[in-house]
Amino acid sequence: MKLFISYSSKDRALVETLHDDLDLLFGDAISIWYDRELNRSGGHQWWALILEAIRSCDIFLYALSGSVLKSEPCRREYGYARALGKPVLPVLIAETDIRLLPVELQKAQIVGMMDHSRDQLRSLRSSLLGLPPAPPLPDPLPAEPETPLDPVGALNDRIARLTADADAQRLLLLDIEELFDDEIHRAHAPEVLARLIERDDILFARILRRAQMLQARHPDPPTPPPAVDFPPPLVIPSTPSRLVLPDPFAWIDIPAGKVTLGEGYDGKGYIPKGKTQTFPVPAFAIAKYPITNAQFRGFVEAQGYQTERWWTPDGWRARGANNWTQPRFWGDADREPFSRPDHPVVGVSWFEAAAFCLWLSEAWSVRIMLPTEQMWQRAAQGDDGRAYPWGKDWDAARCQNSVGSRSSKHTAPVTQHAGRDKGDSPFEVSDMAGNVWEWCLTDYESGEQDENKSANIRVLRGGSWYDCNAEGFRVDHRGRITPEFRVNIRGFRIARF
After folding, report:
1. Which end of the chain is more exposed for a tag (fewer CB within 10 A), N or C?
2. Alpha carbon distances (Å) from 198 to 159, 201, 204, 208, 355
3. Measuring CA to CA, how many Å separate 382 from each of 111, 179, 289, 390, 418?
């Protein structure tokens, strides 16, 4: 297996360590190429050698870091690998804002390799072995990307070609910040500002303001930057959940598989009436338990309800219109059980659940979001087509419910029905029937999996403590509601994509 590593030269030491990890895992079974022997000032010859190595590799490993996002050569290497159809494995080697990655990488499963733990090594090995084989090279080959320009040239090139694409805007902001960080290239700042001013439109207004602010920080002649410009980067330990979320919390890795979905109860969803549809589900990770009140409190205390960047546009409007500042039942003495620390958080809309995920994504530098309904069903059902998480037959003792003679008054601790001999799914995911209905990412009517189109009706799964019909607890039962509803029977769990 031939592996190509794309990385920023600023991360060379980290990539050397990653190389040692790969050598430990695979030995002579893998051939690793990265440009440690090349001189990046070698112009076209250097670039030709890199492109040839990408063409001959079986897997393109993208070593993600903040420096990679600023690297024009890395962006061009990645684009060429995609054009060739090479399998791409993103590997996190340093703190990275995933919102600045290309959209397709944000949705990919990213392997964390920041502390080189045994679990991370296992994940790296299984991810590499699980990738599909590289297809034959296309004929004819795609056009080779040009030799990367110097930073100022790359910036001018991006200004010339920029469209209204939001990702391109963010990358241009990164380029501008790198320009002002580099004392040698800072002398070209006036020329760059002039190019921005030429583009007299709304698109460039924010970018121009940022450039002018950076220029003000660096008067002529350049002066050293302040000792502390930004807060120190967040360090993500091998078990990042312990950094923010109190127990109980654990990730459960779900292998790739398939699920079959039927129509919803009203026949108005994306599954045709009277039909079923089978979907492939890639490997992912899901939280073992629903998010608890104690865990959601971290979002509240981080000023989550006052921080717009963690909300979808529709969610931010709903928050303001309804004056949401915390889950609905917190502080209500008459409904105290719904705010107990180890109970699932309820009284949160889909918008609040999505905002919690975006906050956590930023804190951990990984893609966190509500599970799609396909992911949810796979985690609950496994591979044997069972009707309930624990098996084929209904058992009221295995979840919090109000079926038959049972009459639950409120939610239960998320661990109350945990265990293989209790309510766990085949993958040992807990509380997937009863306790609370769980918000999913999926748009009920269109089937889209996009948090930014959040005004539409969303899928609910799992049944709640209040429900009295056993059919509602089936792993294939599909509920739905509009995203702004906040009641005491709905909560959520998170997934890592």
Report:
1. N
2. 10, 9, 10, 10, 37
3. 23, 51, 17, 10, 17
* Bridge partner residues of 206 (DSSP): none
What's the whole-model pTM score? Answer: 0.55
Of 284, 205, 287, nearest to 241 (Cα)?
287
Burial of 193 (0-12, 13-18, 19+ CB in 10 A): middle
Residue 16: which H helix or E strand, with range? helix 12-26
Question: String of b and e for 404-414 (b: at least 16 CB within 10 Å)?
Answer: eeeebebbbbb
Angstrom distance (rounded) from CA 410 to CA 436:
10
**Cα 96 to Cα 66: distance, rounded to the nearest angstrom:** 5
**Residue 362 near residue 299 (C-beta atoms within 8 A):** no
Structure confidence by residue, pLDDT tens digits, 444-463: 988 988 887 767 889 999 99
Amino acid letter, 444: Y
- From residue 247, alpha-carbon distances to 56, 342, 416 in Å are 46, 8, 14
Give the strands of the sheet with 490-491, arranged side by side: 479-481, 458-461, 437-443, 490-491
Q: Which two tokens stand for residue 56?
A: 């001959």
CA distances from 496 to 105, 238, 286, 370 (A): 13, 15, 6, 8
How far from 38 is each of 62, 64, 449, CA to CA, in Å?
18, 20, 42
CA atoms within 13 A on the CB side of 469: 3
* 49-63, 103-117, 133-147, 294-308: the lowest-pLDDT one: 103-117
DSSP class per residue in 305-346 = GG-GGGS-HHHHHHHHHHT--S-TTTT-GGGGGGG-TTSBP-
Render 339-380 in DSSP notation, one character per residue.
G-TTSBP-S--HHHHHHHHHHHHHHHTS-EEPPPHHHHHHHH
Beta-carbon count within 10 A of 111 CB: 20
450: its two tokens: 């996009």
- Confirm if 54 and 86 have CB atoms less than 8 A apart: yes
